[in-house]
Amino acid sequence: MISTSSLSPAELYLKACRQTGVVPVSYILRHFGDATLNLNYYGLGPRGAKALAILLKSHSVVTPLELKKNALQAEGAQYLLEMLRTNRRIQSLNLSSNMLGLKGATVISKMLSDNFYIKSINLSGNDFDDSAAKCLAEALKTDSAVKELDLSHNQFCNAGEDLGVMLANNISIKVLDLSWNGLRMPGAVALIAGLKVNSTLKELQLSHNGFGRTEAQSLAQALKLNHTLVLLDLSSNRVDDEAVKVICQGLATNKTLEVLKLSYNPIRKVGALTLLRTVKNNMKSALKDIDVFSVFVCEGFVELPEEILRSRPALCVQYSAVAYVTTNLAAPRIFKKFLEEQNKSVMDFFQALDKEGTMKVSTSAFRNAVKLQYSVLPE
Fold this sequence. Notes:
Number of helices: 15
Order of helices and strands: HHEHEHEHEHEHEHEHEHEHEHEHHH
Distance between the termini: 82 Å
Largest sheet: 11 strands, parallel
Strand content: 5-15%
């Protein structure tokens, strides 16, 4: 047992390193007094975590503790758990990519069960499976401190039911990241069922999962009933035009969602138009940012945001358009300006082309006349 009564932080840490048989991390000695202790990628391992825990147990100067990719494993997490029982200053904890697995999830669950201080915890990339999710969800149902939770890049598949129950009961989480998992079908539907009754969540990250037509119906109902969610990220899922049509049933009445991300889904211009028309028709919609960046849209879609912007100048729509679409949209304005400069009317222009008085001018004749005579429109 190390006596800490008369030791400085540096002396205590060096003594802890000797006891645990690890090489001291010079960064800790140099930066221990900083507001944030960033130890990402230092490869501490379980014994290095033990030496750090001994230091932090006696000296509480750190608020955010960054420990990404340190191979802590469940053993290292256990040392941190024991430290956090007395250290009440640490409010943000990054344990991503530490090979925690199910045993580590059990340790973290114990930590969360007794938690009154940790407000942000990152558990991304820790090989958590459905059993780990069940364990964590059980602890988070009654946790009232954590506001930001990152569970991305794990191996959840059918964990949606447990996570959904957690969402239905938790009263503190505002940001939840479940991206890069395998949530789909019944599990995804069960997860969204929790969102329907949740009253605190503001941001839900679900990119790189398996949400598609089946899950869209549940999402639509959640968007009708939920009154707190402001950001929903469904990028890189299986949302197609039919799924968008269903989701729009919820967007038609939703008053709180501000950001909707749908890029890199199999959405075509029809789905994109349906989405934008729904937002246009819902006069109480709060949407400010719509991301369908990967969708190559038509002229009708490009014109619609301009129409909406007249009443909603804050709206931002991210999309892709091939060159001829933007060219065709710009051409009428350029042509009109040219005629005004020449003091000519549109009728004068067409009458010059319709020499036989047929009241008809072919598209090719019109374009050729503009290109050759006036050089207004490009090829």
